[in-house]
């Protein structure tokens, strides 16, 4: 009996020494307590991922909002500038109107004198009755009301022969002969779109005579015969360089030719491009890139052509001539190595001659100049406004897309799947589980 009791006590003692806490496991054999701690850690990590992603999307949305506001502010600023310019132009026009009222006799006298000096030039152009130049000139003068309302003529600045003037008849003849009749009668367009509007074609590639300038010619009883030249200002390669400081005509600051001893060649007068006088109405015309008539049209026609007193002077300086030259006694070098010889004939169409000092006061001229400047400024602002409106539309689209992306993300992150870690945190949870399995 004693031995049995002692053995039983030893068994109970041994069992007590080897006992451990009760461990609960799930159906897969995982320790439920460990599994719970792992899932809590996974959810915590998933929440961190969600918060970080949300913050990133919010920052992206905020950045797009700032871009949107920037374009809105730019548009407000440009509209304010446009309104200010409109007010300024109106005030100047009122002032100009008052000047006309008080100085009508003198103004009409000046216009009469100018018309008389231009009569010969007009007749020269109108001799080419069935030319594009003749039609454009008539539309801008005799049919001014009809011409100004036609979208085609709005894109046409004029005819080469009417866009520049010179000091005297001899210089006019020399420069006009160098340019040639075809170029003197060329139609000058502001943009490439205005060139395209001049002429259209049918399916066979033939000229459609019922549209463009051909249609205009028909409407005034003058059909165009033959080909004609059109010059597009915005497509020309402009002069790149400085301008003569404080020169009201904006002449080009081109260095005079120099002989090896540093002297200017004998008889050199000037560059042809700088001998053209541009009227106030065209002086402040600029292309979209900010280039005026002198550095586009007239630089295209003359480039760096020298003008000399005599043929002998011109030939003495031939080694310095890079783009051509002419002399007042009829000599012509079209370009290096190409000479114009033979009997000099009178130019068929010539540049206008300046009519001398203007009869209007300096104040009147200054007001006109201010109006032109303000109108060009306004055109630039309107172009900027159109560009900003396009950018604003793009920015709105991007902002809306970013906002929708954030809304969808927030909706997904609040779903049951996201809360139990199966969305966004699923990869972390999977990695933790794999590590636990390998550890066991």
From TrEMBL:
Keywords, alphabetical: Coiled coil
Coiled coil: 43-88
Protein's recorded name: Protein DEFECTIVE IN MERISTEM SILENCING 3
Originating species: Heracleum sosnowskyi
